[in-house]
Structures are given as C-alpha cells and as structure tokens.
Queue: 2 jobs
Job 1
Amino acid sequence: MLTKRGIPVSPGVAIAPAIVLDAEDQPIRRRTVPHSGVNGEVQRLEKALTDATREIETVRDRTAETLGNELSKIFNVHIGMLADPALTTRMRGAIKSERVTAEYAVYNTLRSLALQFKQNESTMVRKMGSDVTDLERRVLKHLIGEARSGLNELDHQAIVVAHDLTPSQTASLDKSKIKALIIDLGGRTSHTAILAHALGIPAIVGLEDITSEVSTGDSLIVDGHRGVVVIDPDAAKLMEYRQEVRRMAAFEDTLDELRDKPAVTRDGTEVILQANIEFPTEVDEAVAKGAVGIGLYRTEFLYLGADVEPSEETQYEAYVDVIRRLGGRPLTIRTLDLGADKVHESVTGSSEYNERNPFLGCRSIRLCLQSLPLFKTQLRAILRASIEGPVKIMFPLISNIMELRQAKMILSDVKEDLEDQGIPYREQIPIGMMIEVPSAAIQAMTFTREVDFFSVGTNDLIQYTVAVDRSNERIANLYSAAHPAVVSLIKEVIRSAQRGKIDVSLCGEMASEPEFTMLLVGLGLRSFSITPPAIPEIKQIIRSVSVDQCRRVARKVSGFDSDREIINYLRDEVVKVMPDLFEGRSFGI
Ligand code: PEP
Ligand code: MG
C-alpha cells in the first residue's frame, strides 16, 4: 500500500482499478501488464504498426504527386523499417517475455535503435536516427490515441491516471465509467480541474509522477477531499473508505433537500446563486441542484469538443437548447474564450500552436478581435437565439476600454446585418464584461459607464495579479484567492459596481469554495455563479449566516497581511457555522 498527495480539485471518493494513459511527448514509463493481458498488447502492437504503415503510404503517395517520386522515396525506407522482422520481433519479444505494454516495447526498441544510429560515424547513418524518432512518434500516436478512445468502450469502472489531459479530453470522458481522475500536472483552476468538478468526478492534479507509480489494473482509492491517492489499499483502508462513501452520500442527500429553499441569509438578504456550465446538458443538473440561472456559459467548449469548427447553425442550436432547458431562467453567454490552454485547430491553424506565453498571448477577446469572421459568426448565433429567452452577452478578458468598445461596435454591426436581412433578435440584451485582468479591476469605475454588469473571473484575476500560471503545479502554493491583493481588488470591483449602479457577480472557482462565502457576502457580493455540485453547500452557508456577521469577517480580513492568515481565519469562521461540512476535507489555497 502506497499513499501519494496532490492538489484536490474535485471532491468525492472513488474506489476502482486504474487505467494509465501515456503521453506522446513524454518518456514512456516501463509498465507491466498481467499475464492475461500479454496477447492483447501484442494485438495492439500489430494494429498500430499496420495503421502507421498505411498512414505513411498515404503520405508517400501525396508527396509523389506534389513533389515527385524522388522525394517520396524516403517514406519507402520508413515502411521498410516498420516491416523489418528484426525490429518487430524485438518489440513482440519484449511484450511476451517482459510483459511490458505495447507503448513501452515500441518506445524502448526504437529509442535504442535511434541512439545507435545517432552515434554512428557516417553522416548518412546519423541522419537515419531522426527517421527512427519520427517513426517512434507515429506508432506511439496510434497506440496512445487508441488507448484514449478505448476509454469510451470500457466494460468496467475505472480511474484515469494521466500525465496531463486537455479540457476536451476531460469533457469527453464517460462519467458512468470513469470514477476519478488523477494527473501528474495541473493547478487548482486549470480548465481540466474545473471540468472534472463540473462533471462531478473526484479529481486530484499536480501529483507529479503518479503515472510512474501506477500500472493499469492496480487497485486505487482516490480521495478528492483530501487530495490523497492510495495505491493497492489493504482491507482496513478499503473498509474505512467504503464507510466514508456512505457517510458522504447521506450528507449530500441532506444538502439536496435545500434545492427549493431560497438562498437567503438569516437576516433576510437574498443572494442569487447561478451556475457555470460548459455544455447544454449541464443545465439540467444545475437546475436540479437549485441554480436560478446560468451566470457563465463557457461557449468555447463547443469548439473544444468538436472535430470541425462549429457552424453558426450548430452554435445557434446549442444556445437555443440551453435557453429551452432553462425554462425562462436567465442565461449569461460568454463569448469565445479560446487560446492559452483551450486551443482548437480550426482557430489556430495547427494543433501545435505554441505561443511563448500563452496566458499572456492571443487568447479570448483578443483572438476574437483578430478573427472577425469567427467572432461575428458567434454573435449572430447568440443574437438569433436571444429571442427564445432572457439572454445576456459577456465579453471575457477585457484589459482596456478600447477593446470593450471594439467588441461592442462589432456587436452593433452584427445587429445591423441581421436587421438588413430581416432576422429577428432581442433588442435589449444586457452587455457585460468579465473582470479578470488587474487593469480592468483597477479601472472598474470607468468600465461601469460602458457595461450593464460585471462578472469577476478570479481564476484568471488571481494568476495575473500574483503572476502565477493557474495550471502550473510547481507553484500552486503561490496561487491563492486569499492573497490580500486579490481580496482588495475584488472589494474595489464590488464597490465600483455599487457606485456605478450596475450588477456584479463572481464566477471564478473562488465562488464555489465554501471558505470564501462569508467574506464575499461581507464585501457586498449578492450574486455568485458556481459549479453545479457546489450549489447546495454554498446555499447552506448563506442560510446559516447574517450579513452583519459576514461584514465583521470582511473587516477582520482587511487587517491581515498574508494569505495564510486570511485562509486560516476564514476556515475557522466557516467551521463555526457548519462543522459537518469540512469533516475530512483538506484545503489548498
Ligand atoms: C475565470 O477566469 O475566473 C473564469 C471564470 O473564466 P475561465 O475559468 O474560463 O478562464
Ligand atoms: Mg477566465
């Protein structure tokens, strides 16, 4: 039995066997399979070799057509290598005698061949080393791709163990089979973490080397409350956790009873609790958990979940679907926030879209303003859908006023186009912006004259305020919503919105974390947009406190000068209010 700790990002406990996913761009770890799995690995190897050979034949024929036969000949060499019995027998032999995975057999065999070539005296032979590396990537791509898509055909429940997962890979996981996610990389508010939370799958990120500790088939316990993974648990540990699962299920049942009760403080102040969603189908769970609307619809997931760029019609249908599922409740549609860790080939032109500083790069509204057809297509789809229900439009990552004005101007152009074409849309659509860049937070008062509402995106606001990449596990301890500078920016934004008489909400993960509820209410926040599974507990806290009590908490927090002091104090205060809530939970900040 071995225990590992990481960053807990989605609560809950899961007990199931592991499925380990390798990554093409990382060294493949040596992992063994049980005796019964050897034949399956050999078959996977044969299939990957055949598929890679077919792929090279296609590339060869295309090259011959466009560049001529001479240049295409190199691909015959590649095909010859893949068919060379000396190589394939070594790979098969490794699987049969050492019981390693097909991935490791390919990686190890081709790596050592490439090394031999690269150390040769002849320049010609040394160049062949690069060809072998190219072949290795190609064959691994088939094996790893097949393993990932195989997740959807699983006939048993499993826990996914991966070096990293993109948001779209996470989104496509089958919740009925995948019971938890544990990942080497990632930070508290990486989009993969947010999605796992939204899907209600327990998840731990930042485990650093969990993929080398675990093999497919190992028995695992994942404790998403404490951030603990137990590998090969003994009978006592299993019993302890089975009891925990039963205790939590009972506690959640009591919270679910809150669904139809209002989110009102003990002294009668109403707080609006809306939900964040990524996909239309999430609306149903959000409403079931008690959301009174959707405060953040992350529309970029329409792109991330698709192979081809979603057309205006596809987008329109998704928006109408959300509106209808909401049955008259309000919906805030955020325009595309692509870029950084949310990349789609149709937008960037390549799956290998590398910016030197992606989070400071051409993402979100910046990308939209540089890709007008993309932006206008989305705005048309939103406007057309708006006649179906109470829709608001929100622009993300606004960092200066000209950007906002430009976005609004483009929206007016699209409205004019629709009018010219006689296509109906809702005239009075409230326009809002996210406050997730410190420059926007500092200039909030000015922005109140330009928009109808703010939504504070703390996931980004924190990373830009304290200069900590939100998805980097190595500096996750520095990423803190309780940093006094972050608290002070939030306070100023809320105050500016009040003085400017516009609505303000908060839709970053901070709003879903129970430690911060009293502070935010005390700072004057009356609208939260949170991940659906967190709605009952946040509502429970709101119903257990008074506004005066929260104001006292906020005043006390303003006297602290470190995130440690603030978070410790906030935890103590909320535990006084709801002692059961945090039983067994570990906190990160
Ligand atoms: C945020 O930055 O807080 C936010 C809600 O947006 P996202 O997490 O999608 O970047
Ligand atoms: Mg953001």
Job 2
Amino acid sequence: MSVDPPLFQLSEVGSTQNWLKERHRQSWLPHGAAVFADIQTEGRGRPGNRWTHRPGNLAMSILLHSDPAGTTFPWTLVVAHVVLSILEQTVGSGFGIKYPNDLYWMEPEAKVGGILVESSGEGSYFVGVGLNRQDPELPGAGAMIRKGRPLPPDPIELPKRLQEALLSPEGFAGIEPGLSNHLLWKDQWVVWSLPEGPGMGKVQGLDERGHLKLLFPDDASGTLPVQVRGIRKIDP
Ligand code: BTN
C-alpha cells in the first residue's frame, strides 16, 4: 500500500529547504514529502545568494528520493517544466526558463522564480522552489507576476499541484521540446563563467541530458552543463 507523502504547511520558517533537511534527518520522510511556508525569513538561493520572500509568494521544498522517471533530464529542468506548465494553466502563457534554474516572465524580461536543487549525497534531492507574486525588496532578486493575473489565490493550491505533478506516475518523457521552446534567449548570444573560464555562445536548445546546446563564435557547437551558475545575454 502506498501512502501519500506529507505536505507540511508552516506559518513561518527560516528556510523551507533547511527545515526539510532537518526534519528528514530527525525522522525519515518518503519520496515527495514537501513543505511550504507563509513567511520565510532566511531563504537561500543558489550558493552565496539570499532569496527574498514576501507573504503571498511561494516558498516550497520537496524531497525526492530518485532521479526523474522517464527522462535523462535533471530535477532542475523537470521542476522548471512542471512549474511552467502550472503557471500556463493558472496564469497564462508568457513564462520561460533562463538556463538553468531561473523562471522568467519573458516580455518584459523579469525573474519570477528560482529553483534550488541540493543533493543529499545519498541519491536523494532537496528541491526548493521560490515563486514571486509580490515585488521582493532586493533589486534583481525577482519580479512581480504580471499585474492582474496573479498566482492562484488559495495558498495551498500551488504547493499541492506542484507536489502532485512531481509525483506523476507517467514520468517526464517527452518534455524536451516544450522546455526548449520556453528557453530564454534562443538564437541570442550569451556569456557564462565556469571554473575553467568564461565562455560565449549562441543558445540553440537542450540536448538529451538537459545540457544547453550552443553555437560558439568559431562555428563549432557544444554544450553547457546545468552546473553553470547562470548565463547572461550580450550584444555580440
Ligand atoms: C535561485 O534563484 O537562486 C533559487 C531560489 C530558490 C528559493 C527557494 S524558496 C523555497 C526554498 N527555500 C529556500 O531557502 N530556498 C528555496
């Protein structure tokens, strides 16, 4: 008999990500166990970054004990796909992904959310999702979801939908074209920085592992792994 994983709702927390890790350390949680909070005071972004949360925004973390089923994509991209689908169903079209983990409003470009995937080191993942419907205080940390078309008002609807979708029994085969179509800056020049140095290329799409396909200035092609911190658009 399978048991539905818990969905914890907290009125206030430092970081849902830290809370879930600690809760799982104290007492083992099943695949799909999740937490969301009305107030998050010490949200974490990708290493070194803070994440500002205003009440009404989504701050949620989910524990996943396996790699995504039916795809060779990593959880970062699968979660981006799932969040984009939910946003399109509930808010409308116009959302996209800035590789590898930022959720964007495409026109005018504005970050509306971010995904933080952390490995447990034992084959499990803690996946944090922050989604803004209120302007955060810090410039660059996010943007308001289009005025007049807010996120679903019921605070539990989004976390429930997200948890259910990530546990989809059908798996995630066939998400590549949809994700590729939602990539920000397709056919545009971007730069990035990796430990081995900076690089520049034109965004083409995603390969079968979810790596970003690029055309380099010398006409060679290659890929960027999801481990890249982020890409930035430039005028060549
Ligand atoms: C990023 O854009 O760098 C990722 C932001 C991830 C923020 C979410 S909010 C819920 C979860 N708890 C945290 O402390 N961080 C993530």
